[in-house]
Structures are given as structure tokens and as C-alpha cells.
Amino acid sequence: MSGLKTLFKQTFIYGLATVLPRMLNVLLVRLHTDENVLKSVADYGDVSLIFSYFVLFNVILAYGMETAFFRFFNREADKAKVVGTSSVSLMVSSAIFFGFAMLFQEQIANITNIKAEYINLVIWILLLDALVIIPFAWLRARSKPVKYAVIKIINVVINLGLNLFLLLWLKGLADQWSFFDTLYRPDFEINYIFIANLVASLVTLLLMLPFYFKVTYTFDRKLWKQMIKYAYPILIAGVAFSINETFDRILLERLLPADIAKSEIGMYSACYKLALFMTLFATAYRLGIEPFFFSHAKSENPENNYARILEYFVIFGSVILLAVVVFADVLKVLFIGDEAYWEAMWIVPFILLANFCLGIYHNLSVWYKITDRTKFGAYISVFGALLTLSLNLWLIPIMSYKGSAIATLTAYATMMFLSFYFGRKYYPIPYNLKKIGLYLTVSIALSALSFYQFRANYIVGISMLVVFLGIVYYAEQNILKQLLKRKHAN
């Protein structure tokens, strides 16, 4: 149990580092969807499209080195060599990317249908973000979650503050003070969004600079080859994941008529954000369990702990799924600033469930990470990406963003089942399938009833939530009693 206590403690802190910044980012959604900030739903669609490319290139620039770092940091006796080799690798690759991207930014703008002025800002942000990948991984590997959390939170506070200043206050100040008038430019809102992001990324790198002064810059070519061999399937899986997560916006822009494409992307992206609570929970859990998986791989009976971890994840995830669905229409008023975006609310249960399946997949992925069979992660992710692309290409012309939501859920659910199937063969873990299946079935069924039959009927919805919590308490009462006894004993 001590290992699990450590996991939950770190997960809480990593969760704070993830939840609080992203909750602040929800304020950005509220800000960016305000009709007085961005002039139209299509403008928000432009921003969402650019961030879709962000996700893809962040994965490419990391090329699986973060996960490889964890694996070799825990395995190699000379940890300084691992830190130095991975740091040099990321620094060199980032510099090469930056040079080529700046040289060919006009061509990139033409291919992506994004203005060159935005491309320039994006290139700088990608460079700065790539340079903090290993420093952040180093903090996690050395169990420094508090420092990790503080820096992450500072990043988002700066980003949020600059968004508020540049988008809400700068124009008014420019009318009164000549100094601010030199900073203000009309019709520059999208640029301001990325300038705020750029400054936040720069400050983050400055805060992480002490890491670069501590590193022993030794580059072990043999170790690097081993790390790349381990990492390249992670890269392939990461690219596939980025396709599953954000490529639907790119396809919506390509497949829908030009006069409605950006507006459809804007509505879809705004309502997609209401799955935030599931995404936050799954991300925080993943940040906590990834180092835990590796550090406890050689402990006695780690499989039992892995099984319990998934069970707890499903319990909490099921509660979040049902709670967000029940209160979806309250959340849309709080987090989305303009009714013009609410048309896409139909997708919310699909995206919530899709992210739930993705979180389960990350928990199941322990088998191929600790057995060095990362190629299976790549195979599964590529299959999921191909499924996403195929379904989007088929369904978008018929159903627009509804087709994208269905494709996302189908892909993540399929990946979840494939990982479970192969995991039973190569690294059997005694999951309590009856209990997990019960929670999933009941929460999904109640969520569907609440949203599609009793939507905004809070008497029925809250009753369903109470019933589900009662089922959880009844099934888990022995464990809860043990925890309470231990608490009183302490």
C-alpha cells in the first residue's frame, strides 16, 4: 500500500499542476468565445486549427525521448549520462527544426492555410516548448512534483494574464496613454493569443535554465541509439495519438465547404472543451503512474498494484463521466461565452467517453512499456489513427463534426480493447473485469439516458448520479472501511 500512497500523493500534485493550469485555460475558452473578443466563431476556428498543428509538432519534436528518458534513467547506473545524452539530443534536433522551419515558413503557411505571421510565432513557441521537455522529465524522475507544479502553474498564469491584458484591456489603455497606443494594433487578436503563449513559454524556459547549468554534457552514442530504438515506436504512437486527438479539425477544414468550415471547427472545438474534466483526470493519473510503472516493475507482485490502479481509475472516471453529462448545460453557460457555439453540444457525451477510454488505454499500456515492447503501442496507435482518418473521411461530408466525435470514440475504444487483448498474452494482469465492466456499463447507460432522454432534468439526472454513487459505495465498502480504520488508527 505504501507504493500506492506514493502514487496517489504524486498524482494529486501532478493533478494540481495539470488541473489548475487547465482550469485557468478554461477561462481562455470563455474569453476567446466571447463575441466582443474574437469577431466570429470562424476566428475561434482559426485559433483551434493552429493549436491542432501545435499538438502534432510537439509530439514530433519530442520524438518519444521523454518516455525513453524515464526508462533508461531508472535502468542505467550512470544517470548523468542518460540526462546528458537525452538533453544534447533534444537541443540539437530542436535547433535543426528551428532553422528549417524559419527558412521555409512561407511554404508551411501555404500547405497549412495558416497566415505566415502566425507561423512565425508558432515556430518560436514550438522551439521553446521542446527545450523544456527533458528538464520537466528530470523533475518527474527525481520525484520533484511540487517544483514541476509551480513552474507549470506560472506558465499558465502568465499566459492567462497576457491574454486578458492584450485582448480586454490594451485597447482601452491605448485610448488613454500614448505608451500603450504604441503596443496596440487593431484586428490583431489572434496574434495576441500566440504572443501571450510565446512569452509564457519563454519564462518557463528561463525558470528551467538552472537544469542546463547542472547537466554534464556527455553524449553516449551507444546509449543514444538504444534510447532512439526504444523511443521511435513512442514517436509513431504519439503522432497517431495527435491524429486521433486533433486531426479532425484539420480534416473539417479540408472536407467542409469553405464558407462554413471555420465556424464548424469553432463550435466543435469549444464544446470539445467540456470534456476537460475527464481529460484533466486522465492526464493527472497518467503523469503519476508513468514513473510509478517503471520504478515498481521489479517489486514483488507489481501486477496486483497495476490491477488495483485501473480499478480506481475506472471508479473515478465513471463518476466524472456521469457528473459532467448531468450538468453539461450548466457547464456550457459557465465555460462558453457565446450561444452561437452551443449548437455542437451533441458531441459532449461522445468526447467524454472517448477520453475515458483513452485514460483506460494509458493504464493498460503498462504491459508494453515495462516489457520493452513499445512497438505494440505504435501498432495499436497507428491502427487507431487509420480508423480515425477513415471514419472522418467517410462521416464528415455526411455529419460534419458529429462524424468526428463518433470517429474519436470509436478509435479510442478500439485501442483500449486491443491493448487489453495483447496485454493478456504478453503480461497478464489480474484485472477485476466484472467490477470494471459493471461500473462502465452502468455509468455509460445512465449518461446516455440523462443526456439524450432527460437532458436538463436535474431531478432525474442527480438521482441517477446518487444511484451510481450508491452502487460504488456498496461494491467498495470493505476497502472504504479499511481506509477509515487506518485513518483513525493514525
Task: Give a quick rundown of the structure.
With 490 residues, the chain is an all-alpha fold.
In total, how many domains does the architecture comprise? 1
Number of strands: 0
Low-confidence stretches: none
Mean pLDDT: 85
> What's the shape?
globular
Report the structural category: mainly alpha
| N-to-C CA distance | 15 Å
Structure description:
The protein has 490 residues and is an all-alpha fold. The protein has one domain (2-489). It is 84% helix and 0% strand. The chain contains 21 helices and no strands. Helix 6 (116-130) runs parallel beside helix 10 and helix 14 runs parallel beside helix 20.
Which labels suit this protein?
mainly alpha, 0% strand, globular, 490 residues
SSE topology:
Layout: H1 2-32, H2 41-62, H3 65-75, H4 79-103, H5 105-112, H6 116-130, H7 133-141, H8 145-176, H9 178-183, H10 189-214, H11 221-255, H12 258-272, H13 276-295, H14 302-326, H15 328-335, H16 348-364, H17 366-370, H18 374-399, H19 401-426, H20 433-452, H21 458-489
